[in-house]
Amino acid sequence: MKSVLIVEDEQAIARVLAAYLKKAEFEVYLAGDGPTALTVFDSVNPSIVLLDVLLPEMDGWDLLRIIREKSTCPVIMLTALDDISDRLNGLNAGADDYMSKPFVPEEVVARVNAVLRRNPHWTSGGEDRRSFGNLVIDLAAKQVLLNGAEVALTPRDLSLLLFLSEHPNRTFTRDHLIEQVWGLDYEGSDRAVDLSIKRLRQALSHWTTETGEIRTLRGMGYQFWIAN
Questions:
Q1: Does the 153-226 domain belong in CATH 1.20.120.530?
Q2: For 118-137, what is each residue's pLDDT tens digit?
Q3: In 3-state terms, the chain is what percent helix, strand and coil (to 5)?
Q4: DSSP state letter for 41
Q5: Nearest 5 degrees, angle CA 85-CA 47-CA 40?
């Protein structure tokens, strides 16, 4: 059964979201502050997290960073802040989506389902492994290894890397990547592609560039380049 952790200190909002998500057949867990949310997160391993930014004791940005250090669980930020810098802050920190208050509960449920369709929980196993020097990508297990150690990536960044690696030396525009990785129902800016590429390059900074790299072709797009 799909499960969702709602991290929201405004009880009225939390109760409404919980009611709609239960109706959509989600198992719902609630937390009103950061420390409680981390305890619940570790114990239930939710399918997705709805995370408010303005929380007592620990704000949503700090909580998101802690979650990203331990998990690729999808996270949707919920906030009254609607400035573009806040949206970029969330996406750059590893959020999978961003919704501004006030919002319609039905849309939240739709966004949750859309994110889960794009970012299913990864499972281990499979034999389809590809090696690019010191970088190993296991397409079946949805796992990335660099120098033998697993690389922690957000679900969206992992999906982007998997897609690019399945089409080496091909160039894709932002729009094409949005369609293939983010999905046709994505309504955000194509700036999200640039931020995802930036995070991937940081995560793969020790990948030997003589073997391959994620390249930017000015005016054309991005490619997963590997040496022939």
A1: no
A2: 765 433 333 467 888 888 88
A3: 40, 25, 35
A4: H
A5: 85
